[in-house]
Amino acid sequence: xxxxxxxxxxxxxxxxVGEVMLPVRGATEAFYAYPAVDEEIEVGAQVVVVDFDPPRxxxxxxxx
Length: 64
Known about the structure:
The chain is mainly β and 64 residues long. Helix content is 0%, strand content 56%. It has no helices and five strands. It has strands at residues 5-10, 18-24, 27-35, 46-53, 57-62. The protein has a five-stranded mixed β-barrel with strand order 1-2-3-5-4.
């Protein structure tokens, strides 16, 4: 999962669980998401996974 790029579908902010869509096994699936650093990431932003906590939680930062 680390390194995968996805799109925010539920606002991500410190202390708030957001949601992202990520490509997995040829499909796109939703995952709970937290910011990797103290930042707010709005819906529609492109993100990259920096850590993965199975089964469905990721830590993300903005994709450059």
